[in-house]
Amino acid sequence: MQSQPGEKHGRALLTEVDVLDMRRLRTDYGLSYRDIAEWWGIAPATAKSICRGRRWRHVPMPASLPASD
What we know:
Low-confidence stretches: none
Helix content: 40-55%
Radius of gyration: 12 Å
Structural class: mainly alpha
Oligomer: single chain
Distance between the termini: 26 Å
Mean pLDDT: 84
Order of helices and strands: HHH
Number of strands: 0
Strand content: under 5%
């Protein structure tokens, strides 16, 4: 059995809204991964993976953001 994705997971620290906000802050304002990570209390590498669409893949990327392969 697979674990639940995203905020449905019992240990999730973020919500789908958080993920969308992170991606928009990165794209629209150029906020660094470090600043995004500090704001949400996660590691910079995690923020980078989320913003690039590697993590939280089930949350659609905003139209202005290309998904990273």
